[in-house]
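Data card: per-record layout.
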Amino acid sequence: MKRKAIVPVLLSGLLAAALVGTSTPASAGKKASGPQVVGEDAKGDWGESVDTALSPIGDALGQDLTSASMAMNGKDKIDFIIGLNSLPPTGGAPEVSRYSWYLNVDGNEVQLDGKFTNFSRGVCDPTSGQCPPPRNPGMQPFFVRANCAANEANVTICEEVGIVQGVFDAAKATITVTVPMQLINAKPGSKITPGTNIFGGSISAAPSAFFTSSAMPMDTLTVTKTFVVSSGKK
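The structure for this 234-residue chain is written out next.
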């Protein structure tokens, strides 16, 4: 009878040894670092408000939104990352594909508005309520607007506080806009919450020559999560 008990004892010992050999690393419970996804959108829904058959055009233009992410970039910058279903090497239609991200920094409205090329708005940016002398905004320019207030006609006008360069990555189908924290009055602990884009959602990707018409086929994405600015230190 005692000999029969040897088998269960041996099996228990082997099982214990196997469990020790496959123990979970101490780091497995730690939260993964990297961009925080703050919003998502379905693929293939570009232009569906006008005609569902138009969706393939969204990929050719680089305007079918799929995700929005944010991440700290060093100690004093924030990356705003727009994910797309497809992004041609030239940014889709360089002077036509317009991307706008509306957000709030500690309750104050901020707008990121850019293209692969944006020479038309380099001449005059009506959204900022001013038309400076003609200028070359550079490649992949994103206008950063803040200090928004309603004018006498009850139209919200935002001051242009700077221009930053977006990075268009065709392989990853992403557009990354890196913004200095000081430019948008953000600091460690600041809360960046979703804004309301004039075309719907928080982010829009739409055809635009100079102005953008809300009647045009486009895609919008709603940001649903709050991003808390950290010190950026590791």
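Known properties of this structure: The first strand starts at residue 36 and ends at 40. The chain has a mean pLDDT of 82.

See the next section for split statistics.
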